[in-house]
Every structure is written in structure tokens, then in C-alpha cells.
Design brief:
Blueprint: H1 3-7, H2 49-53, H3 72-95, H4 102-119, H5 125-130, H6 137-159, H7 165-177, H8 194-209
Helix pairs in contact: 3-4, 3-6, 4-6
Length: about 210
């Protein structure tokens, strides 16, 4: 069995579907975005503020910094992956501002994370001690999930202008059917807040897709 298939059949301790954080709507005050105490690889992937100010106005909405409406651990993982993509995009945009290959950048980050998972298997002694930059294993698991989300969304973003009416209808159907990214394999355990959770994700997607 390949490491990819074994990854998605892991024990509840590291499987996204079993993480209670996914059914929560997190408060903005749950963590300090500037702190190293949240296992964020500070200074390694984030874009410095002065460089942010110089970002070209056409930066894809997919790379916006709005956090997804979920728990702290998956939010940290999302921020790690998103920051890596923003930094790569900025590096390319300063050299080739007209045509920055977003799909290629997303695939690059996904491939890097998958290579890291293969070299340092999840929950192995090597992974726990030697992961660089260091972060908790459950954060790393979600980074893999988010990297696949970014690949899919960037591919759709690239194809959407050329889609036929039928293809657009099918795409819109999938977006309505799966308001929570399928890559994350989320289970909302609290049926009482399902509507709030779904509405939160829909609003977040509108911002990421530039359809506000």
C-alpha cells in the first residue's frame, strides 16, 4: 500500500475526519498570529509586511489571508500552506508580473509536502523530531489536505473562463454539494450548528473565489 493511501486510513489521532476542531466556528481571539507558540513556522514562509505592501494588485483571491471557519489546528495548517504560496507567488510576480503560474505553484507546494511525508512518515519518530520547520503532526496532516485543496481550486480558477455552460453548471453543482472542501474529509458532529458551519464556509469560498 502506498503512503498516500495509508495516510488517509490513519488512526483517529491524526485523521482529519476525527478532529473535533472541524465542527467548530473558531473565535478570532483563539490565537496570536504573531506568536511562535502555535507551531507556526514563523519567518520561514510568511511574507514580510513591507513586501506585502508591494504586492501587485492582481494577486489571486485564492491566496487571500482570510482564515477558514474551522478550528485552530486546521487554521494553522491552512495559514502555513497559504503563506508558502503567497511567498512563492510574490517571488515570481516580481520577475514575471504578467503571468504567474498559480496552478504550478500550488502543485509545487503539494509535491514538496508529499515528499516530506514520504521522507519523514507521519507520526514516525523521524517525523516527530526532525520535521523542518517543526510543527505538530496533526498540523502537518492538515497541510497535506490543504495543499490538495489549493491545487483543485487553482485548476478550476484557470479553467472556469473557458468552461461551457454545461461545465459551469456541473461545477456550480459540485460547489453547492460540497461547501466544505472534500480534501479535508470533515465530519460535522454537531447537527445543531450545521447551518451556521455551512454558511460560514460558503462565505469564505466566495472570498477565495472572488465571487463576493
Amino acid at each position: 500500500m502506498s503512503w498516500v493511501s495509508s495516510f488517509f486510513n490513519r488512526t483517529p489521532a491524526t485523521t482529519p475526519t476525527e478532529d473535533d476542531d472541524w465542527s467548530d466556528i473558531s473565535s478570532e481571539n483563539e490565537f496570536n498570529c504573531a506568536s511562535d507558540n502555535n507551531e507556526r513556522p514563523r519567518g520561514d514562509t510568511s511574507v514580510p509586511h513591507d513586501e506585502e505592501l508591494r504586492l501587485p494588485p492582481n494577486m489571486p483571491t485564492l491566496l487571500s489571508t482570510d482564515l477558514p471557519p474551522c478550528g485552530l489546528i486546521p487554521q494553522l495548517a491552512y495559514e502555513n500552506v497559504n503563506n508558502r504560496l503567497r511567498k512563492l507567488w510574490l517571488q515570481r510576480a516580481t520577475k514575471e508580473p504578467v503571468d504567474v503560474p498559480l496552478v504550478g505553484l500550488c502543485n509545487r507546494v503539494r509535491e514538496d509536502l508529499e515528499a516530506e511525508a514520504e521522507a519523514s512518515p507521519i507520526d514516525s519518530e523521524l517525523g516527530i523530531k526532525a520535521r523542518k520547520p517543526w510543527r505538530r503532526e496533526n498540523v502537518f496532516v492538515y497541510e497535506l489536505c490543504w495543499s490538495r485543496y489549493f491545487v483543485r481550486e487553482s485548476e478550476v480558477m484557470e479553467k472556469r473562463p473557458k468552461m461551457s455552460a454545461k461545465e459551469l453548471e456541473q461545477q456550480e453543482f459540485l460547489e453547492v454539494k460540497y461547501p466544505i472542501p472534500r480534501e479535508l474529509k470533515i465530519i460535522n458532529k454537531n447537527n445543531l450548528n450545521t447551518k451556521i458551519v455551512i454558511e460560514g464556509w460558503k462565505k469564505w469560498h466566495h472570498g477565495k473565489r472572488g465571487t463576493m
